[in-house]
Amino acid sequence: MIAEATPFLNFNGDCHEAIALYSAALGAEVVDRRPWDPAMFGGELPKGMENGVMYARLTIGEVPLEMSDVPPNMTVEPGSNLSINLHITDPDELDRCFNALAEGGTVAMPPENMFWGARFAKLIDRFGVSWSMHCQLVS
Question: Domain 1-75 falls in which CATH fold?
Answer without folding.
Answer: 3.30.720
